[in-house]
């Protein structure tokens, strides 16, 4: 199967046009579009948590189950870019999913230091923005999905942090009573370092580097 794709220069032009279009969107449209995107990403976060909730793999092959979970997560960004939907339910209030949520939230929020979360935020949005770049680069549906899939798989498998994805993982952990996590800790160690890292990773390491490379070439 051939991959039909734009050139890097054409993608930069497409990104610029998309940026102008999004910058001129009305506030209500931006709000409802963001709500829809958050719901779609929450679907993928739910799949990651349910996949990680396999006790045997967690005890005997944690790296393998993490890789498998990372392989399925990219469908969230694919749906955000290609379509729309809503989310409901309380699936993770029961075992073994509740334990998977609390373990995941603890590893994401309690264990790492502030600077570690910040650095993981840089790497994460660098890869996410590359996924968006490759998604725009594809001309047909298959090319877009392939382009999106692998950078997103990379960020999940490496354990990087995305501020929006964590808005599913960490609040869910708080609601289910994960020890050591509260709203204040989440804002200080979750939102702030991840958001700053994501901005730098997406804007500087991906956006500026891609534009500079294309201009130089």
From TrEMBL:
The chain crosses the membrane at residues 30-51, 63-82, 117-136, 148-174, 186-207. Keywords: Membrane, Transmembrane, Transmembrane helix. It comes from the Eukaryota. GO terms for cellular component: plasma membrane. GO terms for molecular function: high-affinity secondary active nitrite transmembrane transporter activity. It is a multi-pass membrane protein. GO terms for biological process: nitrite transport. It is found in: Membrane. Belongs to the FNT transporter (TC 1.A.16) family. This is Formate/nitrite transporter. It comes from Penicillium argentinense.
